[in-house]
Amino acid sequence: MESRQWNYVSLVAVLVLVLGAVWLFWPPAKQIKQGLDLQGGLSVILTAEKADVDASSMDRALLIVQNRVNGLGVSEATVQREGARSILVQLPGVRDAASALKILGSTGQLEFVDVASIATSETIKDGLLLKKGSYTVLLTGEVVTAASAEADTKSPGAYAVSMTFNAKGRDEWGKITTRLVGKQVAIVLDGRIQSAPSIIEPILDGSSQITGKFTADQAKQLATVLQTGALPVTLKFSDTQQVGPTLGQASLNQGLLAAIAGLIIVGLYLGVYYRGLGVLSWFSLAIFAVLYLGVLGGLSRAGAFALSLPGIAGIVISIGMAADTSILIFERFREEVAMGKTPRSAAKSGTKHALLTSVDADVVTFVSAVFLYALAIGPVRGFALTLILGLVTDLTVGFLFTRPMVITLAESVIAKAPAVWGVKGGARHA
Predict the structure, then answer these.
(1) Cross-sheet strand order for the sheet of 185-189
(2) Which member of 65, 80, 241, 246 has the greatest number of CB atoms within 10 A?
């Protein structure tokens, strides 16, 4: 394919990419999801109390925490290991932080206890905290296979939690309730009595119910804890941060203002210094911005990206790198024209060498960003990801738009009015 035809194909390809990008990110406020620091929400780090906890226990704890987060119904939540003993949980959009913390921090150790065995001078009642080792455990929550919140038929307006046991639990529960007919069995969660009903008759169908005048939300939270099972290790909150939606929105506005201001200032400088070529850089930067937003929108739709403040910093740096690529192309083109080459010849050789230089520089940054993304945790990965995407988008625009346009213009208008395009010297003919 001839050089001129290839240039036209590249420009058509850019047009198709731009249309696809607009479809992916428009409207940006809806299509590009926001992270915790922009949308507001809750961020906690859960750390195992024991220093010598094994990896398998932490893996199990991570799975249980993930299931509990799923039970909260929070979209774009993040649950991941942080070091050997900690788990990072980020819940964008959460407003009821107290309830979320209660679910995440609960060990979830469910026990069925013979009330007669409880060694305490206090009256047995709902909410009583029992000392460890002061009672006899009849059955544990390991046998629970399902739990759900439902209306308490015996207490209008209140809710209860119904449980279903596995085969082993059904048999054991049947024997226990047969032996203790007429006596009380306390249902204890994390050492605190939830309810202490009397056994009226043997329960042989492998089910039970926890009552205690719960609200609908409380019953749902308890069911979530029971459904996911008990944590194999005790986790404590080593760090808790709650970001309000107002602060997040203010940060987003400031970040976007910085990005837009940077884009305008860079564009004005290029226009004044490079004249006609500077105007061409405006189109390059505009196409870069559209394609960049399209990539971010596509990743957001796939659930692989959420915009954060460090991510905005990566975007601002990417704008500067996109401008650098245009400057490299223009400067190398002007230098070769000044050395006596025709605009056409200078455009072909100069833009080629300029882009190769840009690739060399970007590869170093790209490798650093990849390592940062692989090793970092939390929002820092957002910075690395936006930087990686910015580098790829920048080179795409350079190869498919900026270089073909400079070559196309050099073969026509630049040779006729070089001063208008910021070009001095050069031969008139090839």
Answers:
(1) 137-140, 110-114, 185-189, 192-195
(2) 65
Q: Where does the chain hold its CATH 3.30.70.3400 domain(s)?
A: 41-105
CATH topology of domain 110-225: Gyrase A; domain 2 (3.30.1360)
Query: Residue 154 carries which side chain, given as an amino acid letter?
Result: K
Say whether domain 41-105 belongs to CATH 3.40.50.150.
no
Tokens 């390809």, residue located: 13
Contacts 24+ apart (CB under 8 A), 54-59: 55/84, 57/232, 57/233, 58/84, 58/85, 58/87, 58/233
CA nearest to 311, candidates 75, 34, 103 = 34
Write the pLDDT tens digit of every residue in 127-168.
Answer: 888 888 888 888 888 888 888 888 888 788 888 888 888 898
**Distant-in-sequence, close-in-space partners of 170: CB < 8 Å, separation ≥ 6:** 143, 204, 205, 206
Show Cβ contacts of residue 296 under 8 Å, excluding neighbours closer than 6 positions: 25, 32, 305, 307, 386, 389
How far apart CA 298 and CA 32 sit, in angstroms, is: 8
What's the CA angle centered on 266, arms 422 and 250, to 5 degrees? 165
Tell me how far apart the alpha carbons of residues 298 and 204 are, in angstroms, rounded to a whole number. 53
Residues of the chain with CATH 1.20.1640.10: 3-35+244-421
**Of 187, 183, 190, 194, nearest in space to 107 by CA:** 190
* This model's pTM is above 0.90: no
- For tokens 């394919």, what's the residue? 1
The tens digit of pLDDT for each residue in 234-270 reads 888 888 877 666 556 777 788 778 878 878 888 888 8
